[in-house]
Amino acid sequence: MRRGDWAVAPVIDWLLQEGRLETDTAALVERLAARLLAEGAPVWRVRLGFFTIHPQLAAWAHVWVRGQPVRVESVPWGVERTSAWIGSPVEKMVATRAPVRVRLDRLRPGDHAVLHELAAAGGRDYLALPLAFSDGSLNVFALATDEPEGFGEHDVRSFAQLAHPLAAALEARAMRRVAETLLDTYVGHRSGRRILEGQIHRGDAEEIDAAIWYADLRGFTRLTETLPPARLMELLNTYFELVADAVTPRGGEILRFMGDATLIVFPSERRGELAPSCRAALEAALDAFARGEAANRSRLREGCPEIRFGVGLNAGTVIYGNVGARTRLDFTVVGPAVNRAARLESLTKELGVPLVMTGTFAAALGRPTRSLGAHRLRGLEEPVEVFALAS
To answer: 21 and 170: one domain?
Structure first.
């Protein structure tokens, strides 16, 4: 076959029939590149990138280079203000909503650094094509070749033909990823997976065993009355972040931020096995306190109010699932174990200790604790014995 006579139709057919069903984007890119090579397309590098809704990232990208595994890149927020974006071929493509082609063997000193990097790696021609999604956003289909003569006109036309079905295949995948990200951000990873699996009916729930964490800030009412809104939000965000950094690596899922309070669940892997969850919850609490002390040293130097909080820990069986109105649901945990954790936390102020736990939690913990006596908790008829760490 003469170079340049390769057929794009079989690649499009594969994409519409099989490729679109591939759930792993990295695998899709690898298989797409293999199909292009099999048809004789002069591809050396393929990059698929799409912008996203994410609290930390502006975009995702999957990069294939011939002979190498697909590389996944994350693009942080604020990239549009950096040299990586300004003046790049992708910036130009997004601004003009048109393809951008650059001969990599004819670059000038002032051309963007990414083009010089591709040329240094062996690239000879570069083409960026817009992938238009139904919401009006433009995403990226970028190709490069190491053929000495670069892309021919047939190559450019064929890649442009491929861009339309490729955009359709990627959009569904991108929207799924956005949905996963939003659910992870607002309801947590475990809950988000359950919602995506279809547990969206009121009453969809199950009983699980878990350790329950309930915490809130000290003096929050006074802080809301005295701090300017921006400083109050900064304090809350710093507090919530140090809690999240402590609990998430240990398997805790933040179910709710309620004003200054946090409700976190550490589900047990098996029914009746509370010890691992309780140890994880305690380790997370101690880590959060340590992070708070470190943050406070900086805050005091900067004249900012300290972050002080109390934690109540309980363990037991809870109902995990959907509650709410017909059209507005909350995926959460409910039950006596949750209520006791919340009531317990209020005792940290009265008893002058930052962390208290129920007898159930202390018994499952497997490390020395000390009794703080029996105390009445709001809403409960009988006093409840509470415990703190022995040291």
So the answer is: yes
Nearest C-alpha neighbor of 150 from the set 113, 117, 112, 118: 118
Q: What is the largest CA-CA distance in the chain?
A: 88
d(CA 391, CA 298): 27
pTM: 0.68
CA 166 to the chain's CA centroid = 25
2 domain residue, yes or no: no
Is there a domain that residue 360 lies in? yes
Kind of pairing between the strands at 253-258 and 71-76: unpaired
Residues 6+ apart with CB under 8 A from 121: none
CB count in 10 Å sphere of residue 121: 13
* Residue 217 parent element (H or E): strand 205-217
Among residues 134, 157, 186, the one where a domain terminates is: 186
pLDDT in tens, 26-41: 899 999 999 999 999 9
Top pLDDT among 2 and 192 is at 192
Q: Which residue from 249, 377, 240, 245 is spatially nearest to 314, judged by alpha carbons? A: 377
Distance CA 22, CA 308 (A): 48
What is the domain-level CATH number for residue 274?
Answer: 3.30.70.1230
What is the domain extent for residue 142? Answer: 9-186
Residue with tokens 């933040």: 254
Based on the structure, what is the number of domains in the chain? 2
Six-digit token string for 376 = 């009445």
Taking CA atoms, 136 is separated from 97, 130, 133, 178, 245, in Å, by 11, 11, 6, 16, 36
Burial of 88 (0-12, 13-18, 19+ CB in 10 A): buried
Tokens 């899709």, located at residue: 28
> What element of type H or E holds 369?
strand 369-375
